[in-house]
Amino acid sequence: MTSEAFFDAVKSRRSIYAISKEAVISDEKIVAIVQDAVKHTPSSFNSQSARVVVLLGDNHDKFWDITTNTLRAIVAADQFEPTAQKMNSFKSGYGTVLFFEDKKVIDGLMENFAAYAQNFPIWSQQSSGMHQFVVWTALEKEGFGASLQHYNPLVDEEVRSTWSLPDSWQLIAQMPFGKPTAAPGEKTFQPIDERVKVFK
Length: 200
Prior knowledge:
Low-confidence stretches: none
Mean pLDDT: 97
Largest sheet: 5 strands, antiparallel
CATH superfamily: NADH Oxidase
Number of helices: 7
Strand content: 15-25%
Radius of gyration: 18 Å
CATH class: Alpha Beta
Structural class: alpha+beta
């Protein structure tokens, strides 16, 4: 694959909020995308600390019900309607990918490589961001639209309990996805020469 083809995929990835439950590819293909991303996306010291949960069908709906109920408890009732609409828009999608980092792995690295200890939590977040980008871009190329959300740590405990996940799994981000029902808005860019400097 040429760099041009790669960047075609990069450029097409956008935040898509209007999504539906209509299937675009098989569930098996979705899982294969996530598995390939987790297997081949880099991590510091090859720590492979990323953990990912794919929620489809009723499990997808359940996650956004959990998030809605959690927010309902902390948002004033007379101000909750916009939040409810946002949660419903995510729930209207086909599935959700939950991105975690395994703190047990990170803590082990901090202990075994003390000279770099303060960097491992930072490198962990960087690796998670790469995993998110790879999955997001791959789903986009298959015809899904997605966005990245962050309702952690509010929902962490109930998520781990509901799906019997280890306590060491720290939730980093949530990615609802589905078939786009509306195009994204226009994206603007700052001058690239203010953001990239070249010295020969």
